[in-house]
Every structure is written in C-alpha cells, then in structure tokens.
Automatic annotation (TrEMBL):
Cross-referenced Pfam families: Peptidase_M28 (PF04389)
Organism placement in taxonomy: Bacteria, Pseudomonadati, Pseudomonadota, Alphaproteobacteria, Caulobacterales
Residue ranges of every copy of the Peptidase M28 domain listed in the record: 91-280
This protein's UniProt keywords: Signal
Protein name from the UniProt record: M20/M25/M40 family metallo-hydrolase
Signal peptide (residue range): 1-22
Superkingdom, natural source: Bacteria
Listed InterPro entries: M28_fam (IPR045175), Peptidase_M28 (IPR007484)
Organism: Caulobacter hibisci
C-alpha cells in the first residue's frame, strides 16, 4: 500500500468513530459523506478509490457484526472493457442468519461510480453512496432485531460498467439462486425535489403490490410504484437499468428502490452537499420498513411467484 493511500485509508477509518448506541440508520449520512468524499476519487471499478471505498465498507460490515459466507467477504470478478483492458472488480457479501430458515432475502446496492473525467471527480453521492448507506442501515436493523429468513447483504461493484458485479454474482452466487426468495436493490435514494421515492417491481409482479401499499401508508416519504410495466419508453422502464436486472433475467423475484433522474445525475455536482438530508433520512427509514415487510412475508411472495 503506497504511503499516501495508507494515510488516506487511516483518515477514512477514523471517520468510523461513532456513538456506541447509534441505532439503525443513524450513521447513514456519515456513510454517504465518507463514500462520496474527494478522497474516494469517484470509486471507479478497479481503481485505488474503489479499494478505499471497499476498505470502508468492510470495516462497517465488521462493526455491525456481519458474518461472511466461507473464508471472507470479498468476491473478486474480472471483465474486459471495450478498449481491451481487463478490470478486476470485487463484490462484498455478508450474511445475517434468520431465526426460522427457509428462503433467503438478498439486499444489494452498488458502491462503484464513474471515477474522474477531464480532471473532475464524479463523487456519486446519490449514485450510489446513498444506496450503500441504505444497505448498511438495513444490515444494522436486521442485526439489532434478527430476521426470520437468512439475509444476504451484498455491496456490488461494476454496476456503472454494465451491471458487471451483479451478473458475476448471479453467475456464481454465494447461495443457490433457487433459494433466493426476493432480490431487493437500492440505487439512488437521496435526491428528489418532490419528496418522492419510487419502487419498481409490482407491475410485472403484482403479488408485491399489497405489501408495498402497506409500506407506503407507513413510509415517512412519498413511496410511489412504477417505472416497470407502466413505463412509456425503454428509458423509463427501470427493470434492467440497475443491478436487479441481473436477477430478473434469472427468474428471481425482484424489487428496486430509487429516485428519478435529477440535474446532478452522473455529474460532478452529485456531492454530499446537494443531498436534502430530511428526505434521505426518510428514504432510509422507508427501505428498512420495506425489507422488514419482505422478510415477514417472504413465504407468501414465493408462493405467489411459483417458487
């Protein structure tokens, strides 16, 4: 590890100092701020910034008390870019054991972004430091009150390069795909001028609608369903536009939480300072609420899905 990188890593890990009694979601803003800092250099897959982000997430896994499957959390994969360069990405996989067993609930968010372009850092605060913060908050919630079913907490790499990490996981899953009852993905949870968070998946999978209707009634933000079968035009159908697409292709039931595009999307202005904090906190509380509901009704979901 180069001296400069080691110093930056030490500084980032120092940011983990947090109140011992912090509850689920209390550190979400800190997670976004650290993961979207200039020191992460935009978290491009295969970059030193990606390694730094991975170091931070792994330390959070350990502090939450998550367990690996097998010998460790890291699952490397390789792919070849259009320019012929071979890139190594790394997925991070943890498991929380359920109290009753049965199917597994998979919860994902990608931690990569697009890196540095023309000397400007694309920090990706919303895309997708916010989703990773939501993922960690869900992990904290399930660690505090154990789920009924096993829950996989997976930070995926290479989403911006064509869902590479999700496709690698789906090709060589840490548990059999047939055992995954629902894949839940978070991608962009923090910015919407109207205070709206979307959830996709109930259009093609109507058995999810009653559950999501109930979640929407209790959610602290406006939770809207759509951007799947109701979408006008391919660009408005989100089914395959984030990591849930790799699981949808394999026939795994899926659901996706995210906001609509905004002026900072894939721009160097997607910084922590542009996040409306009350909305983001409400979004995190909403995805915790939703994943709890999915865990409680996972058997029902799979019966309706014919699995």
């Amino acid at each position: 590890m180069r001296p400069f990188f080691a110093a930056v890593t030490a500084a980032v890990l120092a940011g983990l100092a947090a109140p011992a009694l912090a509850g689920p979601g209390d550190l979400a803003l800190d997670d976004v701020k650290i993961l979207s800092a200039d020191t992460m250099q935009g978290r491009a897959v295969g970059s030193p910034g990606s390694q730094l982000a991975r170091t931070y997430i792994l330390e959070r896994f350990k502090r939450i008390g998550l367990s690996p499957i097998g010998e460790g959390f890291e699952r490397p994969f390789r792919f070849t870019r259009k320019d012929g360069v071979v890139v190594t990405g790394v997925n991070l996989v943890a498991r929380i054991k359920g109290t009753e067993g049965g199917k597994t609930l998979l919860v994902t968010a990608h931690y990569d972004h697009v890196g540095v372009k023309n000397g400007q850092i694309y920090n990706g605060a919303d895309d997708n430091a916010s989703g990773v913060a939501g993922l960690l908050a869900v992990a904290e919630a399930f660690q505090e009150k154990p789920p009924k079913h096993d829950v996989l907490i997976v930070a995926l790499d290479g989403e911006e390069s064509g869902l590479r990490g999700a496709k690698a996981f789906a090709a060589e899953p840490s548990v059999p795909l047939a055992s995954i009852g629902l894949a839940v993905n978070f991608d962009m949870l923090s910015k919407n001028a109207k205070g709206e968070l979307y959830v996709s998946g109930s259009g093609p999978q109507p058995f999810l609608k009653p559950i999501l209707d109930e979640v929407a009634k209790a959610a602290p933000v406006t939770l809207k369903q759509g951007h799947d079968t109701d979408a006008a035009g391919k660009e408005n159908n989100w089914t395959f536009q984030s990591d849930q697409g790799a699981f949808a292709e394999k026939g795994v039931p899926w659901v996706y939480f995210g906001v609509e595009d905004h002026p900072e999307y894939h721009q160097p202005t997607d910084d922590f300072g542009t996040i409306p904090q009350p909305f983001f906190k409400g979004s995190v509380a909403t995805v915790i609420l939703a994943t709890r509901a999915f865990d409680e009704r996972l058997w029902e979901i799979n019966k309706a899905a014919g699995r």
